[in-house]
Write a structure and sequence with these properties.
Blueprint (H helix, E strand, L loop, with lengths): L3 H15 L1 H12 L9 E2 L1 H7 L5 H25 L3 E5 L2 E9 L2 E5 L8 H14 L3 E6 L6 H10 L4 E3 L2 H10 L9 E3 L4 H10 L4 E2 L7 E6 L5 H12 L6 E6 L2 H10 L8 E5 L3 H11 L3 E5 L15 E4 L5 H6 L25 E8 L7 H13 L3 H8 L5
Parallel strand pairs: 4-5, 4-7, 5-6, 7-8, 9-10, 9-12, 10-11, 12-13
Antiparallel strand pairs: 1-6, 2-3, 3-14
Helix pairs in contact: 1-2, 1-7, 1-8, 3-6, 4-5, 4-6, 5-6, 7-8, 9-10, 13-14
């Protein structure tokens, strides 16, 4: 039996070789939907019409969520995207910050539709200034809610293509889909493996794993809050993980008694001797979501070193972060918060160093240091390049 690696590798080669024909074959094979190449792209009029096919209260929710996500992204962009230069004598050094030109956004299908993920990925890219955004999603995921979210987010290019084939198409292009520079968005194990295999050809945001939450709570936290928040993340997927860290054994006992038996196996309850130990364990886990459901939670923020997103105070459920708070819910999983960050405007920005020398004598020490390094490394033409311009 072929491994996921082998299956994905074969699919990528098929897309590179057969293009749209391979994508149509996958739609019939995996989604039981027959498509022709001309049907792979969803007309923009379908996106506009979808706004009128969803209930008014859902339209209102989309507007609220989109506005909050856009406001947060714009505030982040203002803080992040200032080009800068410093002068050291006649030498100029700095950075220019620019968005990538094109992005592919993968929206997963599966057990639930995810209109929220449409907003959480497309809006930060648009605010960053990305010129072209191509959204891909499995044919069966084109629900009115997903289409309406795409329209509210500002999507102009949508393809009904899913799985590893969609990632291959975004990376290498087909007759209908032009390749992109960067791919973002969560997906199943095959989508994640495809992102791993095309990395280098394109950039990727992360290799997403199952959803996870760590909750730190004590006897002052309502048990209902803890229970619902643990189970909210656990319901995402059979492989989701929810962990409670508490110094109060009575809290743990009450939570254990109230767990939904259908998904209780996805929940871990840990007793800690003190709250500081809870934060130590949370840092070791480096979770996607970290809820600090404690009074005066802000004072514990300096103890948090690794988390995709931090939710402070009993009123702040991670579910708000999933939908309407503003920051994107596409976050590092499987402990990768130790070195990675969630999707944001910064995800779509790249930095170019800016270096300017005048050749003046005051720069001699930098020239001589570079020449010494070139000679030490045996780089003949590096040294000649320097000597040809050496300050006099």
């Amino acid at each position: 039996m072929a491994t996921i690696f082998q299956t994905v590798q074969e699919m990528i080669e098929e897309v590179k070789r057969d293009g749209d024909a391979a994508l149509c074959g996958y739609a019939e094979r995996f989604d039981q939907v027959k498509l022709t190449p001309s049907q792979l792209q969803v007309p923009t009029v379908v996106l506009r019409q979808a706004q009128n096919k969803v209930p008014t209260h859902f339209q209102k929710a989309l507007k609220e969520c989109a506005a909050n996500i856009r406001a947060f992204a714009e505030a982040e962009k203002k803080a992040l995207t200032k080009n800068w230069q410093v002068r050291r004598g006649s030498i100029r050094l700095g950075q220019n910050i620019r968005p990538v030109d094109s992005v592919g956004v993968y929206i997963p299908g599966g057990r639930y539709p995810y209109p929220s993920t449409v907003l959480m990925t497309i809006i930060p890219a648009l605010v960053a200034g990305v010129k072209r955004i191509a959204m891909v999603t499995p044919p069966k995921n084109l629900t009115p809610e997903v289409l309406a979210a795409a329209s509210f987010a500002g999507c102009k290019e949508l393809y009904q293509v899913g799985g590893a084939g969609a990632i291959a198409a975004l990376a290498y292009g087909t007759q209908s889909i032009q390749p992109v520079d960067f791919i973002v968005g969560p997906g199943n194990a095959y989508v994640t493996e495809a992102k791993r295999q095309v990395y280098g050809r394109v950039g990727i945001d992360s290799l997403a794993g199952p959803s996870e939450v760590v909750i730190i709570a004590d006897k002052t936290t309502p048990i209902e809050y803890i229970l619902n928040d643990l189970l909210a993340q656990a319901e995402h997927d059979p492989d989701s993980r929810s962990t409670l860290l508490s110094p109060d054994k009575t809290v743990i006992a009450k939570v254990e008694a109230g767990l939904d038996p259908q998904i209780a196996a996805r929940v871990q309850l840990r007793h800690v001797k003190r709250l500081t130990q809870a934060f130590e364990q949370a840092n070791a886990l480096a979770p996607e979501h970290l809820e600090v459901l404690l009074k005066n939670a802000e004072r514990y923020l300096p103890l948090i070193h690794h988390a995709g997103a931090v939710f402070l105070g009993p009123a702040t459920t991670a579910v708000l972060g999933d939908y309407s708070a503003g920051p994107s819910h596409v976050l590092p999983t499987s402990g990768s918060a130790r070195f990675a960050s969630g999707l944001s405007v910064a995800t779509f920005m790249k930095r170019s160093s800016v270096i300017g020398f005048s050749g003046k004598a005051t720069e001699r020490s930098a020239w001589e240091a570079a020449l010494t390094m070139a000679n030490t490394e045996g780089m003949t033409y590096h040294a000649r390049s320097l000597r040809a311009r050496v300050a006099s």
